[in-house]
Amino acid sequence: MTDAFDGPRPSGGVRVQGVPVASYPRRVPEAVRGEVRRITVVGEEVLHRPCREVTTFGTPGLSRLVDDMFATNEAAEGAGLAANQVGEDLRLFVWDITDDWGVRHVGHIANPVLDELPAGQRHLIDEAEGCLSVPGPYRTVPRPGLAVVRGTDKDGAPLVIEGRGYFARCLQHETDHLEGRLYLDRLARRERQSALREMAVSADAVHARRAARAAGLGRG
Predict the structure, then answer these.
(1) CA gyration radius for the chain?
(2) Cα torsion angle, 181, 184, 187, 188, sign
(3) For labeling, which of 43, 74, 82, 93 is most exposed (least CB within 10 Å)?
(4) For residues 210 and 177, what is the distance between their CA atoms, to the nearest angstrom?
(5) Which mean pLDDT values do the consecutive 10-residue runs of the chain (220 residues) have?
(6) Are 121 and 84 in contact (CB under 8 A)?
(7) What is d(CA 15, CA 185) in angstroms, rounded to the nearest whole number?
(8) Mapping DSSP to helix (H, G, I), strand (E, B) and coil, where does residue 203 land?
(9) Are 139 and 126 in contact (CB under 8 A)?
(10) pTM greater than 0.85 (yes/no)
(11) What is the structure's pLDDT at 219?
(12) pLDDT at residue 119 in the model
């Protein structure tokens, strides 16, 4: 998911893996360690089928993948990134996002499952949404303003992450990816075609900007 915030980020605290922390670096340690990978784009098969469960935890390979996903997300100026967006068929995503109230959320989750919300909490919010795998266009997508996702971290410890507003949108967007769905799949046919035409025009410029940013971060 692309980051909707431009300019300086507001200061409202930081939550890492859902837990408040006193301070946290602007560049997450995982992004410093990781390598930038190519981001898959709409039409590639890995984006359009459900991903496999993560079954082995605490491995160097899984830790490297998390590091690389954070580095790739940072270079692309994203809010969140799913494993199939770097070509890995695994139920895993990362996030680094500031919500509507100025709280920064950082973390990763494996095998996420969204809670079914009670009818009274399913208030839909219409907001523009973009995607790193659909470089360029944004379109309005209605989603609930609350999301609760359950899964584990890379070492297998249980996680429950709650998000509201823009962070809730991110959690839902990334979970969709792991089911083989993009935000385009939630659009009417004409709107989807319009977004794809816009992407065809803007994609080269977006990719060039990402490459320049990766090089500037020393990850190119």
Answers:
(1) 16
(2) negative
(3) 43
(4) 21
(5) 58 91 96 97 98 98 98 98 98 98 97 93 93 98 97 98 97 98 98 98 97 84
(6) no
(7) 31
(8) helix
(9) no
(10) yes
(11) 61
(12) 84
Which residues are marked as active site?
A: 174
What are the structure tokens assigned to 120, written together?
């009274």
Give me the domains of the chain, ranges plus CATH numbers: 14-216 (3.90.45.10)
Instruction: Name the token pair of 198.
Output: 């816009």
Residue-wise DSSP of the chain: -B----SSPP---EEETTEEES---SS-HHHHH----PPP-TT-GGGSSPPBPP---S-HHHHHHHHHHHHHHHHTTBSEEEGGGGT--BSEEEEEEE-TTS-EEEEEEEEEEEPPPPGGG--EEEEEEEETTEEEEEEEEEEESEEEEEEE-TTS-EEEEEEETHHHHHHHHHHHHHTT--GGGGS-HHHHHHHHHHHHHHHHHHHHHHHHHHHHTT--
Look at the alpha carbons of 129, 134, 137, 139 in this order and tell me if their dihedral is positive or negative. Answer: negative
